[in-house]
Every structure is written in structure tokens, then in C-alpha cells.
Design a protein that fits this description.
Number of helices: 15
Shape: globular
Largest sheet: 7 strands, mixed
Number of domains: 2
CATH architecture of the largest domain: 3-Layer(aba) Sandwich
CATH topology of the largest domain: Aspartate Aminotransferase, domain 2
Order of helices and strands: HHEEEHHHEHEHHEHEHEEEHHHEEHEEEH
Distance between the termini: 62 Å
Radius of gyration: 22 Å
Bound molecules: pyridoxal-5'-phosphate
Length: 426
Amino acid sequence: MKEREPASPETLYNETYENYRRYLNPPLARVMKLSGSPVEVRASGTTVWDHTGKAYLDFAGGYGVFTLGHSHPRVVAAVKAQLELMSLSGKTMFDPLVGRLARALAEIAPGDLEVSFFCNSGTEAVEGALKLARAATRRTKFVATHGAFHGKTFGALSVSGRAAFQTPYAPLVPDVVHVPYGDSGALAAVLEGAAAFIVEPVQGEGGVNVPPAGYLTRARELCDAAGTLLLADEVQTGLGRCGALFACDFERVVPDVMILAKGLSGGVVPIGAYVVRPSVWQAAYGQAPLLHTSTFGGNPLACVAALAALEVLRDEALVENSRARGEQLLAGARRIASEYPSVIREVRGLGLLVGVELTHEGYGGTIIPEMLKAGVTAAWTLNMQRVIRLEPPLIVTAAEVERGLEALRAGVGAARDRLGTLTLTN
Ligand SMILES: Cc1ncc(COP(=O)(O)O)c(C=O)c1O
């Protein structure tokens, strides 16, 4: 059979754009084209290559997926070997891998978090945690925070905090109360009778919001007093992203349920999970072990990927690197903010989750494409369009952080020169 000629870069771009425009999401395709999005064809470590062969330093990091960078060789090797043996589990027999992964998580999770449930994405893990909370407490009410992002399935969307994503689907899951993020007084006022309080230790998509010190500790105390479960959504903050293994660790808070996804399997195979106290699991499912299940959840490929990813995280001291490089990135971005106060309102973050809040969202439409031109990717936050997130892999080097910052400086400078001073938005 004759081998097919590889498509020229232009042909590949046009074909991909047309497929997006016609068969996927026409308005999104147009926006991506306007903002200069190329076609990604290959990725390794901190680098992504586009259809023309241009290399980009990845500071978007798959919104937190690529903690180990792209295609970490140890994770890829583990997955390849498993692929030869058995890729999906039949589920009628015991599978050693899912057991090993559950044990590995119990060993690193805070306190007595010990029993895991596995699924395939963050939103499914949130969904599972919410159901578990209702089943364990026999209560219905959920308390959540404004600006939160927990995913887009019905339950997760109902406890998220952005009306624009919710309104078209109303009515959502009932009995959800939202309170301002970081405000433990407001939390205290509504917790009574709640099944669970779900919270991100740092809000990612809400605009990289770091709560006041002591917030999680106070939330833990309030939940204990109300008999309410504390669900920590560490989908984005967990596994080293914030410079600790889990962001809850900063305050030594042990939630009742910890929710994970994104970086858990090293950015190679999709996975989601929650880890729960045995007593809570027992209260929910002790008499009904098949109430909540998933066909593909905890499949062998995802499990070997996650086991290898956890080893890499430890062996390459990536949590420590996240802390050190995070401080460098935060300090550097703050210097740029002080040079351009008319464009940047504030820089905040924890570890390698850094948000650059603009004075006006109009600047972002110049800054992100300019950064791309300079060979660095960056992204918005989903619930707060005025915040650009910098979320490189935890393997990022000091020199790469400087390159990322240079691109940010160039983007911010270009935005100011081109757009002048835009009126401050609230
Ligand atoms: C904190 C948090 N929870 C849940 C989710 C949903 O994860 P997924 O997109 O894998 O469903 C996200 C995704 O960005 C997230 O940041």
C-alpha cells in the first residue's frame, strides 16, 4: 500500500480548522483562529510543537494536567507495558493495579483519608463526592462558594459559582447555597443541616483566589460543629501544584473527602478520584457497595500511569521545585505588575498556580496571543476572564520561568502600547 504523503503545515491547519468549524464548535473555532491558535502536533517535557514546527514553552499546562510535563518517559513506559498486558479491566475479577493505586493514595493523603473511588475526570469525581455526602449524612443541602469551579456535569455545575454556565440548564440540583469564598463568617451562617461544604483550597478557575490564612482550619471547625462533611476539591491544586503535596496540607487540614483528577496520572491517561475517611465511606456504602460505580473508572492504564506519576513526583522532588519556581514566578510577575500598573491590577498565587489579574479583560486578547507569538502558552481562567493563569509543569526550570516572564512582559507591554489605558472594570 502506498504511504500517504504527510500533510503540509498549511493543509493540516486548514483541515483542522474546518473540522472544528463544521463538526465541533463553530464559534469557538473562530475565536481560536482570531487569537492565533496553531495546531498542536507533539509535546514533550515543558515544550509543545505546532504544525509549523514552532516550539512553545507550556505555561498553560493543560489547566493543571501536565504536572510532570508532557509524556513523561517513566509514565509513558508504564502505560506502554500495560497496554501489551491488558488495557481495560473486565471488572468481574480483582485487579491488582487499582488496589495498589488506592493504597498509594491512602499513604500520601492527609490524616485518615484511606478509601478511594476512581473515575475518569474531575467533574465525575466531584459528582461522586456529592452523592457520597448525601448518602453518608442522609442530608441534602450543599454549601459551595461564589466563583467556584467544580466541573460541568449537573451536580458539579450546581455547586460551581458562575451563573453564565448554570442559567441555561436550570433548574439545577436543588438545595445548594453559595457563600463568598474565603469568608468563614458567611459560611458559619448557612452550614446548619448541610450534608457538605465543597471548597477549593485555592480557587483556580475563579481567578486564582488564595483564601485568607486560617480559612480552611475554620471551615473544618465549623463543619465538625455542624456535622457537615468537608469536601476539598484538589482537582487543580493537588499533587504538588501549589507547592505542597496537597494544598490542604498548608493548614494541616484533613477534609472528609479529597477530590483529585488532572495531574493524578501524570498527564498521560485521564483519571479522577476521591479519597474518603473509612467511617464516611462506611456510612454511605457499607450496606450498598454498588450504589455508585463507573465502567472505565480505575482502569489498568490509568492506574499504572498514576502509580508511575506518583513515583516521579517523589523521585524528582517536584513538590519542592513547584514551591521554589512558584516563588520565582510570583515575584517576577509582581515586578511586571509594578512596571505596568495600568494593565495589571494584582498578581497572586500559590506554588505554580499563578494568576495575573488585569485591570480590564480587553487586555487579555492582546497579551495571550503576544505570548504565543513569543513562544509561550498561557490561558484564561474559566470563571474570571480578567485573570490570566500561569500554570507551567512542575518540572519547569529557573531559566524557563524567566523565559515565561519575558513573554508576559512583552505581552503586557504590547497591550499597553496598543490599547492605552482601558477603563477599570470592577
Ligand atoms: C477545581 C476543579 N474541580 C473540578 C474540575 C473539573 O474537572 P474536569 O474538567 O476534569 O471535569 C476542574 C477543572 O478545571 C477544576 O479546576
